[in-house]
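Posting this for the archive.
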Amino acid sequence: MRQLIGFLMVGLLATATHVAVAVTLVAKAGRSAVFANGAAFCIATAVSYGLNSWLTFQRPFTRRTLRRFGAVSIAGLGLSMLISGTAQWFGLHYLVGIALVATGVPPLTFLAHRSWTYHG
């Protein structure tokens, strides 16, 4: 349970980081939303990897865990896009898609990290 709570707290911080970076790049640096969100995703993923390695799973930083963390993060991104795209295709309000992503993707990525990224 401690790991799950830590994972959720790190997720909230990573989300706040993503929002702060994206807003700053668009509003202050005049960058496109696409560029800003891409950069924000990379920075938030780095924050998430560092804090989850150190606090949540208490594992050392290694190339292996970094590669695996990146793979799970990209899979989570793809799943998020698939879920929100499917919700849009069905004509659902965009907030329904966001709710499905927010409630479905974190538990799956937590399980993937616990059983694969940081396992062994």
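The chain is about 85% helix and 0% strand. The radius of gyration is 15 Å.
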